[in-house]
Amino acid sequence: MMTKTPWKEISPTERMRVEYGMRKLGNQSPYFSITAETKRKERGVWREDSGGMLHDMIKKHYPEFRPLLKWHLVSEDNGPMHYEANAIYHLKEGNVEHFKSTIIFGAVPGDAEAFLAAKTPDDVKSFLRGRLPQLMAAFERDMRKFDIK
What is the residue extent of each domain of the chain? Predict the structure, then answer.
């Protein structure tokens, strides 16, 4: 179930609101989503301005939701979207920052040490698979903390 915050005026001519919760599309497993939309006042009328994954704006104007941003697109059954495939792809491309973002690096205690110990692609896959249960436990804790069902 998705929740929308009330509109918040972030300037005299701009307002925004956040939508977050578990989303289910078709036959896929429910996944967590946190997005926002903005409206801009033009000649006294509020008009649509932007929408989507406005995480930098959410951080700035809704700091209470910062702990949830890392969980965007995490499935309650399968973890982060295309968890292993995306992680391996970014690592092969040499993009460690995207790799870390994809796997929600740091959400599991010992991530840094375990990752540094992974020397081969098979080691990385073992690292990813081994940490997934703890990652999902952290996801579930944050969902409960924010009363997201």
Answer: 2-74, 78-145
